[in-house]
Design goal:
The structure is a homodimer. By secondary structure, chain A is mainly alpha-helical. Chain A has helices at about 5-20, 25-35, 40-50, 75-85, 110-120, 125-145, and strands at about 55, 65. The first copy, chain A, has one domain: Arc Repressor Mutant, subunit A, CATH 1.10.10.10. Helices cover about 55% and strands about 5% of the residues of chain A. In chain A, strand 1 (about 55) and strand 2 (about 65) form a beta hairpin. Chain A binds a DNA duplex (30 and 30 nucleotides) through helix 3.
DNA sequence: ATATACTCTACTATGTTAATAGAGATTATA
DNA sequence: TATAATCTCTATTAACATAGTAGAGTATAT
């Protein structure tokens, strides 16, 4: 798994929408809050829409909002959709001719293991969990003042 | 972690040298056995040499051989040296300005976890282990005949 | 000497990533 | 209905990484 900027931005965008679940958020607000180039974020959001993670409303008072509750979205789903398969090497998902050689691709099963271990983590973290974490940390800051 | 062809070839090369531990192997033999472009493999082997994984002997009857015993080399060491850090995103090792924002980079600790889980696997697999696996599988085939 | 084999540097083609640009479509509201 | 705000879609580009190729140079056994 390699997380690109696009994937990173997508996760931050979904997190922001999760933090604002119930209201509608413009790309502009989002872009300034999560510090991402506006035009790039536009594309990321269109992708997230195609993936069924977010919905949008056009026109004045338009914007984006989550298509499901934060509890129903995991970071694994998002990162897979935006950045592709979790596995560290293509041979784990595809045919990969290299596996026909003498060594019978002894490495393949290792990459499968790595993929599983990674999935174990990212598929069990929902945005609800992350929202709670963020809120707990910001509350903690408030109490310190 | 993303494993490139170079990393894949490096692992196969080390495995081949491990299977032939004790003897010296030419790039040519290696290239034909592990099915890798000769000139590309040359470079990979030079890198592996810089990394201290292999040694070489020039001239006639020259070739490559492991610098340490297969038991002393893990696939984690090799892959890190050839393909860079295990972590799925740069922010885990570097500064990464994105972490200064409101959300305090809630994702960062997840990537650290993923990196740890991956390391757990790849740092505990030595080439001795792989050699045993390969030999067991080829023996099994022999018995079947 | 010479053949064999490693060493080193440079080059190139291809693809991906990150970002920018701009015209178009939709909708609330004055 | 005009208009401003907002999402939608396609194209383009600069920079970088990857995968592979090329060729001249150096070392060594015989």
């Amino acid at each position: 798994m390699k997380i690109t900027y696009k994937g990173d931005y997508a996760l931050k965008a979904v997190l922001d929408l999760a933090l604002n679940y119930g209201s509608i958020v413009t790309i502009h607000e989002l872009a300034s809050r999560i510090q991402v180039p506006f035009k790039f974020l536009e594309q990321v959001l269109l992708d997230l829409k195609k993936g069924g993670f977010v919905e949008s409303k056009r026109g004045k008072i338009g914007g984006y909002f989550l298509a499901k509750s934060p509890a129903e979205i995991t970071i694994g789903e998002v990162i897979r959709f935006i950045d592709g398969p979790i596995e560290p090497i293509a041979c784990v998902e595809k045919g990969y001719s290299g596996c026909t050689d003498l060594y019978k691709c002894v490495f393949r099963k290792i990459w499968v293991d790595v993929g599983r271990a990674t999935s174990e983590i990212v598929d069990n973290i929902t945005f609800e969990k992350l929202v709670n974490e963020v809120q707990a940390s910001t509350e903690a800051v408030v109490y310190q003042i």
